[in-house]
């Protein structure tokens, strides 16, 4: 079965409009990816520099479809007990105690060992059953009745073993629990995986996903994003600041400013009641855009030219 | 259109994109979901489903433009045009030429025959659609897709022309030539136009098909050539190849070092143990997670006798250190020093040059081993792999075999890679046979393929 039919995802245009209404301005490519993910029931592996809205995409999708967003943050050492399921050990232990007390009643009147064992077998075994199962994000996403958006964030931070664990979930939307059997999603969730490329993801995993690379946006797209997120900002200033950020990205920086930084900067400038960019203003707020001392220094040295470029571009 | 898609995937494969059959199916699903009408959209969709990295995406987009640019020009309007058999004389600009030729046809039977052929009709009518359709058919008939070498271009052009039925045209030209007819130039113009078209088509096809294959071919050769015989001008290719190898190996083998961790509760074992305490679970048992911490120490001989190899070995070490954690590199000839930091701080050419400059000279294995023992023997443990890259030619000095044996006893594995062929081991001043006794594994290694295999094996055994 499919994640329920959502008219919101009917066509690429509708997705774009829906996202825009929620303040997420996206390129056609992103909308195409969401459309295909929905139509073909495939997970999307989203890659790109930090801060271009990878995680935001999943959040917006959940909002658009109004289904729960289940998020699994990956880190080194993440294992199935934290990602898939765990047994409720405490309750299991209590259950064995209860069972022990009931043992007398159960075996009452049994003759010989063979009969006792047989009776024991007849007694329902719920030690390993769903009653004692504690679902973790992945299993939880399978169990949602209306479907869900499953966000597996920063999958590149996890270990290789964990990747193999994901394979079954991503291709068949099911989870194998050795003691119980296979739990299959009644409504398969829509899955987004994000990666910052801190290591190569295995081919097996990549093969199962649509691969969406989100680059830094074009000037035009970024202006639309700023407009939608920080609507109060003056149009000239908006042109200027986007052009400035774009020229910063062309510099050789440790960490180029992403969309999230552009938005932060736009908000800061708004708070400072700035009307246009000037050198002093940029100098004092540069730390919003750039997060490394080296980067700030190299940007400051070429500041005048960068500003002139931004002015003429705007 | 489905065949167009498989053709496209063929093309991607020749450009080193691995596309599995399952992905081909995915691509078809994508194409049928999105439809073929909107090129941009199809392009995005195929990029989403077939490319697995930003680099692959760039290749794919380029291939897409190349391939579908041609494909659509050939196929799109074919449904709209009438079949070639209804060859009514074309009404517009070329009709004048057609009329002149028709007039001449009475005189020359060859020309009349040529005029009957659909080929000349298409040329006269300047019907590009029909012509490119015929070109496509001729290409399929002659197996043009198999073109690999640029030397085949002429041959395929000839075959294409034959398949198109250029022969009648040729005969007509010959007949006109003999009669020295004024129509000759006219007809020749059409023939040359056709030849030009075919030549361009073959060229395009060659570019599409052969480029990727040629690179693979080249890579294969480079891998098998002895390292000291590789020419300087191939250095860039080799460097790229080595880097690719190192990345591949690292992707397969790199594991981040991990401490032992407490895993999940082992319920079964806890219960079983509890029986001894009257069913009270006194001890809990946890499934342990064991992790290996492979460590590699690599010693590379940079002396004159192996200079040509050393360059590549250092290059390989550099790449490996780039991608694998816990690799320490050492260079030696007359004495030994650690170059890990050098590798970390400098770009590859500079680092190799510096290593050569600092540690190059006459080989003294004994002294170098002593240096190594002092520097790093304490770090050699049961999880360490020591790789020595060198020819073991010690200029008759003391080989200090006991140090090598000391390393052998402490390390998990000691591996010696010797660029000399096995037959030369032990001859002259080579101490290889003696050193070999203190190695878990010694192998001849003088081309990239051997190097890759050995390192792969080594890493596999490492955990």
Instruction: Just name the CATH architecture of the largest domain in chain A.
Output: 3-Layer(aba) Sandwich
Number of helices of chain B: 20
Tell me the overall shape of chain A: elongated
Query: What structural class results from the helix and strand content of chain A?
Result: alpha/beta
Provide the number of structural domains of chain B. 4
Uncertain spans of chain B: 72-91, 256-260
CATH-defined superfamily of the largest domain in chain B: von Willebrand factor, type A domain
What does this structure look like?
The complex is a heterodimer of chains A (314) and B (463). Helices cover 53% and strands 12% of the residues of chain A. Chain A is of the alpha/beta class. Chain A has 3 domains: 7-82 and 138-213, P-loop containing nucleotide triphosphate hydrolases (Rossmann fold, 3-Layer(aba) Sandwich); 85-131; 219-301. In chain A, the strands form 3 sheets. A 5-stranded parallel β-sheet of chain A has the order 2-5-8-1-9, sandwiched between helices. In chain A, helix 1 crosses helix 2 (28-40), helix 10 (219-229) packs across helix 11 and helix 11 packs across helix 15 (303-313). Chain A starts with 11 loop residues before the first helix and ends with a helix. With 463 residues, chain B is an alpha/beta fold. Chain B folds into 4 domains: 2-79; 95-223, no CATH class; 258-292, no CATH class; 295-462, 3-Layer(aba) Sandwich (Rossmann fold). In chain B, the strands form 2 sheets. Chain B has a 6-stranded mixed β-sheet with strand order 5-4-3-6-7-8, sandwiched between helices. Chain B has a two-stranded antiparallel sheet with strand order 1-2. In chain B, strand 3 (295-301), helix 14 (307-323) and strand 4 (327-332) form a beta-alpha-beta unit. Residues 72-91 and 256-260 of chain B have low confidence and may be disordered. The chains are: A alpha/beta (314), B alpha/beta (463). Chains A and B meet through helix 2, helix 5, helix 9 and strand 9 of A and helix 2, helix 3 and strand 1 of B. Chain B: Pfam families: VWA_CoxE. Chain B: This is VWA domain-containing protein. Chain B: InterPro entries: UCP010256 (IPR011195), Uncharacterised_CoxE (IPR008912), vWFA_dom_sf (IPR036465).
């Amino acid at each position: 079965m499919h994640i329920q039919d959502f008219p919101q995802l009917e066509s690429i245009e509708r997705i774009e409009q829906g996202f825009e209404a929620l303040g997420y301005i996206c390129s056609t490519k992103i909308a195409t990816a969401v459309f295909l993910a929905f139509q073909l029931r495939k997970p999307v592996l989203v890659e790109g520099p930090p801060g271009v809205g990878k995680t935001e995409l999943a959040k917006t999708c959940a909002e658009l479809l109004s289904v729960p967003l289940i998020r699994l943050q990956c880190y080194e050492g993440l294992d199935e007990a934290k990602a898939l399921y765990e047994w409720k050990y405490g309750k299991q232990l209590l259950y064995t105690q209860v069972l022990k007390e009931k043992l007398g009643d159960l075996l009452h009147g049994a003759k010989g060992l063979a009969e006792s064992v047989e009776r024991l077998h007849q007694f329902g075994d719920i030690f390993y059953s769903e009653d004692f199962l504690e679902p973790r994000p992945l299993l939880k996403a399978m169990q949602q009745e209306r479907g869900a958006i499953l966000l597996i964030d920063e999958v590149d931070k996890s270990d290789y073993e964990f990747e193999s664990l994901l394979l079954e979930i991503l291709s068949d939307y099911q989870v194998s629990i050795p003691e119980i059997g296979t739990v299959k999603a009644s409504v398969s969730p829509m899955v987004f995986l994000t990666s910052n490329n801190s290591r190569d993801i295995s081919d097996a995993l990549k093969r199962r996903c649509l691969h969406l690379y989100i680059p830094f946006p074009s000037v035009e797209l970024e202006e639309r994003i700023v407009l939608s997120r920080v609507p109060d900002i003056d149009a000239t200033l908006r042109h200027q600041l986007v052009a400035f950020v774009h020229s910063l990205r062309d510099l050789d920086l440790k960490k180029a400013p992403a969309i999230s930084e552009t938005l932060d900067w736009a908000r800061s400038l708004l708070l400072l009641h700035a009307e246009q960019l000037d050198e002093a203003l940029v100098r004092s707020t540069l730390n919003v855009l750039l997060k490394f001392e080296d980067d700030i220094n190299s940007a400051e040295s070429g500041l005048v030219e960068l500003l002139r470029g931004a002015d003429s571009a705007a | 259109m489905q065949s167009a898609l498989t053709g496209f995937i063929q093309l991607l494969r020749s450009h080193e994109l691995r596309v599995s059959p399952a992905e081909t199916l995915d691509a078809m699903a994508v194409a049928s979901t999105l439809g073929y009408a909107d090129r941009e959209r199809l392009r995005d969709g195929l990029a989403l489903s077939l490319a697995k990295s930003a680099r692959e995406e760039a290749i794919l987009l380029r291939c897409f433009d190349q391939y579908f640019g041609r494909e659509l020009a050939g196929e799109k309007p074919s449904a709209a045009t009438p079949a070639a058999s209804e060859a009514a004389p074309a009404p517009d600009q070329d009709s004048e030429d057609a009329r002149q030729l028709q007039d001449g046809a009475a005189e020359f039977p060859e020309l009349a025959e040529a005029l009957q052929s659909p080929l000349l009709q298409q040329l006269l009518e300047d019907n590009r659609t029909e012509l490119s359709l015929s070109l496509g058919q001729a290409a399929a008939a002659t197996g043009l897709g198999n073109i690999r070498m640029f030397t085949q271009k002429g041959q395929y052009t000839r075959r294409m022309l034959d398949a198109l039925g250029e022969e009648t045209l040729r005969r007509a030209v010959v007949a006109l030539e003999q009669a020295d007819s004024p129509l000759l130039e006219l007809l020749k113009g059409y023939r040359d136009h056709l030849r030009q078209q075919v030549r361009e088509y073959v060229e395009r096809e060659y570019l599409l098909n052969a480029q990727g294959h040629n690179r693979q071919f080249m890579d294969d050769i480079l891998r098998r050539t002895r390292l000291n015989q590789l020419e300087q001008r191939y250095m860039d290719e080799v460097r790229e190849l080595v880097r690719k190898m190192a990345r591949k190996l690292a992707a397969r083998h790199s594991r981040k070092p991990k401490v032992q961790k407490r895993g999940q509760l082992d319920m079964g074992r806890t219960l079983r143990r509890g029986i001894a305490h009257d069913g009270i679970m006194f001890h809990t048992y946890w499934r342990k997670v064991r992790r290996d911490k492979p460590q590699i120490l690599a010693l590379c001989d940079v002396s004159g006798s192996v200079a040509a190899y050393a360059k590549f070995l250092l290059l390989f070490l550099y790449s490996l250190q780039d991608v694998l954690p816990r690799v320490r590199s050492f260079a030696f000839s007359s004495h030994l020093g650690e170059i890990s930091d050098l590798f970390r701080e400098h770009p590859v050419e500079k680092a190799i040059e510096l290593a050569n400059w600092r540690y190059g000279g006459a080989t003294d294995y004994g002294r170098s081993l002593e240096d190594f023992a002092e520097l790093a023997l304490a770090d050699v443990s049961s999880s360490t792999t020591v790789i020595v890259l060198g020819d073991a030619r010690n200029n008759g000095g003391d080989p200090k075999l006991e140090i090598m044996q000391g390393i052998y006893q402490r390390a998990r594995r000691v591996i010696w890679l010797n660029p000399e062929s096995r037959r030369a081991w032990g001859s002259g001043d080579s101490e290889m046979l003696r050193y070999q006794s203190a190695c878990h594994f010694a192998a001849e290694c003088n081309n990239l393929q051997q190097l890759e295999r050995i390192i792969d094996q080594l890493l596999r055994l490492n955990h």
